[in-house]
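One thing: could you explain this record?
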Amino acid sequence: MKHTLVILLFLLPFGMAFSQVQVGVYHSGISAQVGVGTNIEKKFFGELRFWAPDRLDLDFGVEALGQYNFYRSEWYNFHGGLMIGYYGDGAIGLPIGATIKPISSFQRLGLLMEATPYILGGNFFLRGNLGLRMRLGGD
């Protein structure tokens, strides 16, 4: 069952692939994540995030996120959705955040601010992420 869940987590965001890909690096507290996903400018987008704990004694983690852009503008996007994760135990959460595009001449670069309430192993947590994301390819 665990292997099936991990495989589904890997395939979920890529089933919604678009012409552009975005990559990101996010930091929350003592841990970091590296993400790859679909075009964040679309109404619906997906992302796969891997925990990058360096030397900390944390379990390997992977998350699949499906998100909806509630509001899109030239300067920022406001989005939320569903997160399914695995860190030695299953997790489910509701990420909500904003991607700010601060450079008018280079709007492929975005600053992510995100809060995710989630349940892991029967316990409730609230995570805040800050990070950079960039769209690659396409127009």
